Amino acid sequence: MKVLVIGETCIDKYIYGKAERLSPDAPVPVLIPEYETENEGMAANVARNLKSLGAQVDLISNISPLIKTRYVDDKTNHMFMRLDEGEFDVSRCNEICLLDWAQYDAIIISDYCKGFLTEEDITVICENHPKVFVDTKKIIGDYCKDALIIKINEQEWKNSKDYYEESIKSKLIITLGKNGCDYRGKNFSVKDVPVKDQTGAGDTFIAALCWSYITNKNMEVAIIFANECAGKVVTTRGVTSI
After folding, report:
1. What is the DSSP string of the chain?
2. pLDDT for res 222
3. pLDDT digits (tens, 9 = 90+) for 152-182
4. What is the C-alpha separation between 84 and 90, in angstroms, rounded?
5. What is the pTM of this model?
6. How far apart are the C-alpha atoms of 117 and 9, rounded to whole Å?
7. Please, how many CA atoms are within 13 Å of residue 100, restricted to the half-sphere of its CB?
8. What does the pLDDT look like over 97-124, one tens digit per residue?
């Protein structure tokens, strides 16, 4: 199986420390850093999950990644803040017209709406391949009507529901966190697990969904598998893959 992932990447960095007192300057905790972890996130995390499942993956992304630094109390796992850098340094993708679409079994668009992909770009991708899985932070519209599937979370669905045609409804998978996800009027529940970090769960979901569908040719089976995989990664700290 060969999959193309296209979209923005970032570096997910976690700085863990101890917070045992408040600052005398302001009513905020003082965090003493003790150690840090980092890995590639966003579209790169989608690619990493696919590779873990055994797929061959090509990744097209921004050259200068964003850096998301999270400051976390090691004892309680409470996140005090997230610092984002490089958000305005993402340039637009210029490789779409050069792609050999036929070499891929599927394409995943991991669009975090930072400027790498436009609606027109997504339209071109969906028109040129029959198995495009779209995961976008943009308002859903007719630009992705030719996608095989469109994954959005509940808030993104609420923001988009007045902007797309009826025909797109059948393509939507609406993720609902602990309540699973909805697809074509059916709810797919998930097991109740101890959640430590939900960051990157959506990346795992779309990667597992794509891998299972291409393997089994059954969307409901793929959704169940994707739910299981996402349920595993949220039980660990940081951004992890399957």
Report:
1. -EEEEEE-EEEEEEEEEEEEEE-SSSSSEEEEEEEEEEEEEEHHHHHHHHHHTT-EEEEE--SS-EEEEEEEETTT--EEEEEEE-GGGPPPP--GGG--GGG-SEEEEEE-SSSSS-HHHHHHHHHH-S-EEEEESSPP-GGGTT-SEEEEEHHHHHHHTTSS-GGGGGGEEEE-GGG-EEETTEEE-------S--TTHHHHHHHHHHHHHHHH--HHHHHHHHHHHHHHHTTSSSS---
2. 98
3. 999 999 888 887 777 899 999 999 988 999 9
4. 13
5. 0.93
6. 12
7. 3
8. 888 999 999 999 999 999 999 999 999 9
The answer to whether 113 touches 97, Cβ cutoff 8 Å, is no
- Tokens for 139? 């308002």
Cα(235)–Cα(14) distance, rounded to whole angstroms? 16
Asked if 221 contacts 212 with a C-beta cutoff of 8 angstroms, the reply is yes
Q: Take residue 109 and report the two structure tokens written for it.
A: 């668009």
Sole residue written with tokens 């739910």: 227
Higher pLDDT, 203 or 193: 203
Residue matched to tokens 């905020």: 28
Indicate the pairing of strand 79-85 with strand 66-73: antiparallel
Backbone angles phi, psi at 118, to 5 degrees: -100, 170
